[in-house]
Structures are given as structure tokens and as C-alpha cells.
Design goal:
The complex is a heterodimer of chains A (265) and B (235). With 265 residues, chain A is of the alpha/beta class. Chain A is 54% helix and 11% strand. Chain A has 13 helices and five strands. With 235 residues, chain B is mainly alpha-helical. Among the domains of chain B are: 44 residues; 81 residues, Tetratricopeptide repeat domain (Serine Threonine Protein Phosphatase 5, Tetratricopeptide repeat). Chain B has seven helices and two strands; from the N terminus they run H-E-E-H-H-H-H-H-H. Chain B has a two-stranded antiparallel sheet with strand order 1-2. In chain B, helix 2 packs antiparallel against helix 3 and helix 5 packs antiparallel against helix 6. Classes of the chains: A alpha/beta (265), B mainly alpha (235). At the A-B interface, helix 12 and helix 13 of A face helix 1 of B.
Chain lengths: 265, 235
């Protein structure tokens, strides 16, 4: 029985740490970041890649695993003031954040509290941070007490890395690549088979995966979106008895791509 | 997914397909045009309608005027006109061969001498007629070679012209056609031979030697070596 309604929910764009898709890019990035954290030879680790390739997911995954061993802080939204970062760090250690004390005194106190151990701070969407915030990250990184893993969009990230704060600093830059069509095929198959949608999984051929990859340019998020839309269209066709659209074909793929806006008529 | 949204998507998909088809069709047409252009310009041998550098057929030289003057005209001037057109209408040959009027002045005193002179003039006129006949025949040969070359411009026809002009001491033309023949078959020594020989005849032995040496730098040829020694010896 083809239950498209249920199957399409598997492709909703949410970060689910339980389901990790081991694409080559993800595995390479994960290995590099974990190694850099373990060795601690660089206080700054940059994860760069196009929007939607899966940076946030991998960052959350590593942070979750690291949490079991030591203090790991994951900041999924950019902070607007440099005091906000100190506040997050105070709260992570269950320390009282006194707003009345000046910034430098707060910083000194924080360093004293953290100096016994090493900590990793993950910041997602770091391209949104301003100059002052980057400067604070650099200063905290130089103390060797904190290690930062910053995830940024490739385009902006390359510009930020060229800035004086980071250009001469010891850093690790990991680039997260795009998906190959074989990986897209494996992702769709494994996601559907995991929830016993084998009949729907069999509808997807490698050729379809190639077309999807072409439309999505190997972007993980867009792949999810297009498969979600495709399954919605198949569901509609099934409900309305449209035989022409009862199986995956180039027309349906094109319609899905049009719907999500990756191609235009 | 609503009915309206689905129908809208179907319509957009159709429009996109049409656009893509049109793009491919135009690309294909453009490609076909380019291919045709390339084929017509680079692969099809067009018949060359070049006007060969041939001057009008030479008029026979005026015979030397006989010293003696006679009141009577022995023979009427013969006028012969040759006009020939090939099928391309590219070469038109007009020649007028005039056998000049010979007037013999007979001195009143020496009758015997006059008779002898008349005989001499008659012989000369006969010889002159023969020369004209030969020239007309040669003209025909030349014409057929040119025509052949125009119709089938290739190594053999061009070399034949070079050979013809060399044999008839028209060394400039022989050189021209030898060079042209060389373009068709650079490895053949024949065009080089006619070139070198013509240059030698023009007393330009260094140029002839240089040409043969150049040929020998590319190809081994006993024939070329022999000719080189020959021209070198003459020099």
C-alpha cells in the first residue's frame, strides 16, 4: 500500500539528530571537526558550506556527542551583543550573571570559572556576527580555555576568514560539500525503507535521483523539499485517480521543481 | 495540494516543456546552419574561375622588309582571325596573323639578280607561312592544356602547363605553374625540376640551386641530386 501522506512527512525539513545520513561530505566534515576538537591544536574551527547542505545538522550532532564527555555549548542563533555571549557562558555553568558589573570584570570572572577545564562552543549561522563579536571570539579563543566551532555560509564565510581577526590565526577550515546523485538515491531509499515504505522506495530510480540532484544542485535541504513536494503530487494523483501521474515521471519531477522554485517557466 | 494548484503546475510544466523544445529546436537549426556553412566553405571543392595570367596570343613578328622595291604587288595580304571561347567564357583569344605585303623593288639594270631576289622572297614567304602554321598548332595545344587545367585543376594538369611553357621557353609562366603544381603534391620533384630548369634558363642558377637544396632538405632524391650537380657544373 502506498501511503504517500505518511511517507512525505519523512522529508519535512527538521533537524532530527536520531537520523543521521552518512554522506561522504558529512563523514569527512565530521571526522575533521572531531579530530580538531580532540587534538585541540586550533582554537577556531570553521565549517563552511552552501545554505542547506547540512552544516547545522552535523554541528548539532557533534555537539550532542561531545556533551556526554565535557561541557559543550550549542548556540543556534546569533547573539546581538557581546555581553549576550558571556551571559550564555555564565548560564551554562549555572553562574549568576550580574548585569551591573562591567564587561571586562565579567570576562575575567568567567575565565577564572572556566580555566580548569576545556570547553567547546558551537555557533551556528556565525556569518551574522558583527566585528565586535568576532573580536570577542578571537580573544576568548586565544586564552586556550575555549574552543569555538563556527558554522557559516560559504560565500560570507570566505570573506570573514580573510579578515584580520582570523587571517593570521591558527584555525581549521572544513568545507561541507554537496550531495552526489548516488547519495541522494541512497538517502531517499534509506529514509523510506526505514519506515517500511518499500513500495514507494521502489518507485524511485537512479535516473530520478539524478534529475532531483540536478534540480537541487546537491543541496540536502532542497532534496528534502523536492521529495516532499513530489510525494504530495503523487498523493493528489492517487486520490483523484490520475493515471498519468500514478508513477514518478519527468513531468512530475519538473512540476515539483517548479513548485519549490528551483526552476522557472 | 488543491485542484487549482495542481492544474496550475500542469500548465506551467507544459509551458516549460514547450520553451525547452523551442530552445532545442532553435539550437538544432543553428547547429545545422553552422555545419552547412562549414561544409560548403571548407569541404566542397568549387571550380576555380581564376583567370590565368596568359596574355593574348602573340602576333607573328613582322618579317624584315625586303630591301628591294617592286612596283607590282606579288601577293594580297592574308588575314586570319582566330577567336576561341571556352565554356566558362574566361579566356578569349583573339589573334590576327597578318602576312605582310612584300614589295620587291626591281632594279632596272640587273635582271638576273632580280630573279634571284624574287626566288628568295618566295622562299621566305613559304617559310613564314610554315611558322604561322606551327604557331597555330601550338596555340591549340596551349588552349587545350589551359582548358583541361580549368576543368580539372590538379597536380597533373598544372604540371603539364609548367612543362609546356618550359618547352616553349616561356620560363616565367613555367615557374608560375611549377609553383602551383607544387602546392598539390609538395613531395614530387617534377615541379621543382621545372622551376630550377626555368630559373637556370633565366640565368638565375643560384636561385635554382637554392630551390633544389631546399627540396633535398626535405626529401632524398637522386633525380634532384643529379640536377643539382648539373646546374652546379654549369655555374
Amino acid at each position: 500500500m502506498r501511503d504517500f501522506e505518511e511517507a512525505k512527512r519523512l522529508f519535512v525539513d527538521v533537524i532530527d539528530a536520531k537520523f543521521y545520513f552518512d554522506s561522504t561530505s558529512a563523514e569527512v566534515s565530521r571526522y575533521k571537526i572531531e579530530n580538531a576538537i580532540k587534538e585541540r591544536y586550533a582554537p577556531l574551527i570553521f565549517l563552511i558550506g552552501d545554505p542547506g547542505v547540512g552544516k547545522s545538522y552535523i554541528l548539532k550532532l557533534i555537539s550532542g556527542e561531545l556533551e556526554k564527555q565535557k561541557l559543550s555549548i550549542f548556540i543556534d542563533h546569533p547573539f546581538f551583543d557581546k555581553r549576550d555571549l558571556l551571559k550564555i557562558l555564565y548560564e551554562a555553568k549555572d553562574l549568576e550573571f550580574d548585569k551591573t558589573i562591567n564587561f571586562n570584570a565579567l570576562k575575567e570572572k568567567l575565565l577564572k570559572e572556566y580555566e580548569d577545564d576545556q570547553h567547546t562552543i558551537f555557533i551556528d549561522e556565525a556569518q551574522l556576527l558583527n566585528e565586535d563579536q568576532f573580536e570577542l571570539i578571537r580573544i576568548l579563543g586565544d586564552t586556550k580555555i575555549f574552543q569555538f566551532v563556527l558554522s557559516m555560509h560559504k560565500e560570507e564565510g570566505c570573506v570573514i576568514l580573510e579578515k584580520k581577526h582570523f587571517k593570521s590565526r591558527t584555525k581549521v577550515v572544513v568545507e561541507y560539500g554537496r550531495l552526489h546523485y548516488n547519495e541522494v538515491y541512497r538517502y531517499i531509499q534509506s529514509t523510506l525503507l526505514m519506515k517500511n515504505h518499500s513500495e514507494i522506495a521502489l518507485m524511485f530510480s537512479k535516473k530520478d535521483a539524478l534529475k532531483i540532484t540536478k534540480y537541487c544542485e546537491g543541496n540536502f535541504r532542497t532534496v528534502k523539499k523536492i521529495v516532499f513536494t513530489l510525494l504530495s503530487l503523487l498523493e493528489y494523483a492517487k486520490k483523484n485517480g490520475l493515471k498519468k501521474y500514478s508513477d514518478i515521471n519527468s513531468c512530475l519531477l519538473q512540476m515539483s521543481a517548479l513548485e519549490i522554485g528551483v526552476i522557472h517557466d | 495540494m488543491t485542484d487549482r494548484a495542481f492544474e496550475e503546475l500542469q500548465r506551467r510544466c507544459k509551458r516549460l516543456k514547450n520553451k525547452r523544445f523551442l530552445k532545442w529546436f532553435l539550437a538544432l537549426v543553428l547547429f545545422a546552419i553552422v555545419v552547412m556553412f562549414v561544409i560548403f566553405n571548407f569541404y566542397i571543392d568549387k571550380p576555380v574561375k581564376k583567370e590565368l595570367p596568359i596574355k593574348k596570343v602573340v602576333k607573328p613578328a613582322k618579317p624584315k622588309r625586303v630591301l628591294l622595291k617592286i612596283k607590282k604587288t606579288t601577293q594580297k595580304p592574308i588575314k586570319k582571325k582566330i577567336t576561341k571561347k571556352d565554356k566558362y567564357n574566361t579566356i578569349v583569344l583573339n589573334s590576327t596573323i597578318v602576312i605582310p605585303k612584300v614589295t620587291i623593288h626591281q632594279p632596272k639594270t640587273k635582271k638576273l639578280v632580280v630573279k634571284k631576289e624574287i626566288k628568295k622572297v618566295a622562299v621566305m614567304q613559304k617559310e613564314q607561312k610554315q611558322v604561322v602554321d606551327i604557331k597555330v598548332t601550338l596555340l591549340k595545344d596551349e588552349q587545350s592544356l589551359i582548358k583541361d587545367n580549368q576543368e580539372h585543376e590538379n597536380f597533373n594538369s598544372t604540371l603539364s602547363l609548367a612543362k609546356y611553357y618550359y618547352k616553349h621557353s616561356k620560363y616565367e609562366k613555367a615557374i608560375y605553374f611549377a609553383k602551383k603544381a607544387n602546392r598539390y603534391k609538395p613531395s614530387s620533384f617534377k615541379p621543382w625540376e621545372y622551376y630550377a630548369k626555368s630559373k637556370t634558363k633565366q640565368n638565375k642558377q643560384p636561385e635554382a640551386i637554392e630551390a633544389i637544396k631546399q627540396y633535398l632538405s626535405y626529401f632524398d632524391s637522386d633525380e634532384a641530386m643529379k640536377l643539382l650537380q648539373e646546374i652546379g657544373g654549369k655555374k
